[in-house]
Amino acid sequence: MCGRRKYSNLSAGGQLVATAVHVKDVGIQDFDQSVIDESFRRPVVVDFWAPWCGPCRILGPVLERLAEEFKGDFLLAKVNTEENPEIAQGFGIRSIPNVKVFKGGAVVDEFMGAISEGEARHFLRRHCPSDADRKYAEGLACLDLGQAQEARRAFEEALRADPSHGGALLELGKILAAAGDAEAASLWDRIPSDSPQQEQAEPLKQALEFHTVCGQNGGLEACATRAVAEPENLEARYAHGCCLAAGGDYRGALEEFLFVVTRNRNFREEAARKAMLTVFALAGERSGLAEEYRKRLAMVLF
Question: Which one of the listed residues 2, 56, 128, 223 is annotated catalytic?
Answer without folding.
Answer: 56
